[in-house]
């Protein structure tokens, strides 16, 4: 009897990009994770609990930064000191092209999905999008956007670490859940979705 090989473990560090960002998320550079969590916690407290306004906060920070840099530069010229070490603030053409290419892929994918849904070609895709939008709307009615971002940051610094440590047990449970959901989806597909008539492409062209 041939024994099945055990599934390969996912390299979470490589899945996250394998760079310094992955090191921070997986707490290999713990000081980076501490700085990010403390910063996001402070911002969430300022805007959610202290009632600080985002626009006024950004304006005050920029105003303070401009004043400090201005008087620093003036005092440096009077005292023959070096100017503030400010790098050249510009965006390279390569960065703009990469960002535009990435945005084009996402936008074209979203437009393709919207096109298929508008023409009624794919009921399964329509149901998936409808359920996803309903879930987003329901979550948005419970918490605001800033709290949602804060929860996302906390989860991004906790879920990858837990999964990397207990990957085998989590994969086993996820496989069981996936099989159950697939079985339920097949029942709905066979009993409901496949019985709904749809006009074929030839009929649409004739119309």
TrEMBL record:
Its main location: endoplasmic reticulum. It is found in: Endoplasmic reticulum membrane. It is a multi-pass membrane protein. The chain crosses the membrane at residues 30-47, 54-73, 131-163. The keyword Endoplasmic reticulum applies. GO terms for biological process: response to bacterium. Residues 21-207 form the Reticulon domain. One of its GO terms (cellular component) is endoplasmic reticulum membrane. It holds the Pfam family Reticulon. Keywords: Endoplasmic reticulum, Membrane, Transmembrane, Transmembrane helix. It comes from the Eukaryota. PANTHER family: RETICULON, RETICULON-LIKE PROTEIN B11. This is Reticulon-like protein.
């Amino acid at each position: 009897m041939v024994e099945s090989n055990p599934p390969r473990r996912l390299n979470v560090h490589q899945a996250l990009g394998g760079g310094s960002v992955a090191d921070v998320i997986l707490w290999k550079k713990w000081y980076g994770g501490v700085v990010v969590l403390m910063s996001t916690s402070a911002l969430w407290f300022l805007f959610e609990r202290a009632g600080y306004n985002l626009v006024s906060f950004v304006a005050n920070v920029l105003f303070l930064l401009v004043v400090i840099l201005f008087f620093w530069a003036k005092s440096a010229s009077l005292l023959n000191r070096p100017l503030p070490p400010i790098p050249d603030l510009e965006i390279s053409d390569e960065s703009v092209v990469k960002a535009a290419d990435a945005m084009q892929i996402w936008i074209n994918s979203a437009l393709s999905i919207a096109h298929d849904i508008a023409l009624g070609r794919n009921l399964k895709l329509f149901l998936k999008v409808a359920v996803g939008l309903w879930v987003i709307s329901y979550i948005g009615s419970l918490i605001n956007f800033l709290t949602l971002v804060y929860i996302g940051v906390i989860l991004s610094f906790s879920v990858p670490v837990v999964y990397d440590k207990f990957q085998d047990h989590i994969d086993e449970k996820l496989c069981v859940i996936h099989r159950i959901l697939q079985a339920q989806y097949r029942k709905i597909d066979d009993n409901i979705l496949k019985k709904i008539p749809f006009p074929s492409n030839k009929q649409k062209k004739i119309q």
